Amino acid sequence: MAFTHQHLLGLEGLSRDEILFLIDTADSFKEISERDIKKVPTLRGKTVVGLFYEASTRTRTSFEIAAKRLSADYVSIASSTSSSTKGETLLDTARNIAAMRPDCLVIRHNASGAPHFLAQRIDCPVVNAGDGAHEHPTQALLDLLTIRDHVKRLDDLTVAIVGDILHSRVTRSNVHALKALGARVRLVGPPTLLPAEAAAWGEVHNDLHDGVRNADVIMMLRLQRERQGRNFLPSLDEYSRYFCLTRAALSAAAPNAVVLHPGPINRGVEIASDVADGAESLIMDQVTNGVAVRMAVLFLLANRARQPSVEAPAVAAEPAEAPRLRRKAG
Ligand code: CP
Description:
Layout: H1 16-29, E1 47-52, H2 58-69, E2 73-78, H3 90-98, E3 104-109, H4 114-119, E4 126-131, H5 137-151, E5 158-162, H6 169-181, E6 184-188, H7 198-201, E7 203-205, H8 208-212, E8 217-220, H9 236-243, H10 247-250, E9 258-260, H11 273-276, H12 283-302
Parallel strand pairs: 1-2, 1-3, 3-4, 5-6, 5-8, 6-7, 8-9
The structure holds phosphoric acid mono(formamide)ester.
């Protein structure tokens, strides 16, 4: 098995074997982070650029750590200190970075489709580090690796994904992967935070206790408060009363159920502190596995020979914020 794609733009369309190959490759990188000297020469002489147009703690830091543990040079660019503040377009920024011959470009952007847009226009592997409400493939891969570490399987699992499904790129990537791997998916949340297509992704529940009943894995989502301007919820208090994962709600899940959350967490809003910090919580394991997953992805893509871009029409518009699942990932 080999990963033959030039980019990692999403998990939609990847086969079960490709997803398992990515997870297995990540698994093999885990032990490097447990060493005294956490560095191998695998990507010596390679350059990775991280271009972050949205805030990030875990993803940005772990890509940088992953690159450095593989001996790649890592350059981090935040939109707030880049020439995008002077009006430079995303495409011009990316073309200028590509002209410096990096071996991989990692991008986070608030517009769904931004990584796909660039991947068609620059001759450098592109990794999607989260685009709008579309996909966050490395997050789903680290979620799956963490589940497999603890539950010891990825098929014959019932996974309840709970909360702000509508705005969640984490959900979309996980749904694609979990379905490819044969897991049963439940989407749990208030009707206003469930997209119309949720019924096609899995079982839909509007009641937290019903949604988590006998689930093996509960994946809690951050309530994306920055996107709540359109009255998706009557109030934060009401949301937490019905959808906060408390110890009482967790008791409905399967014995030995595990709890995940991509972070950052809103304590007391979507998850109670004693659950977030409890024995069932794998939140810190997810963060640890994030480094291994990003090492695997950089290893598989940055070693690739440069390939010419498939240039799209010059007049194509830059992607706008579109909080919907793209029908077709590039
Ligand atoms: N899970 C996640 O993407 O976290 P950050 O926004 O901090 O990167």
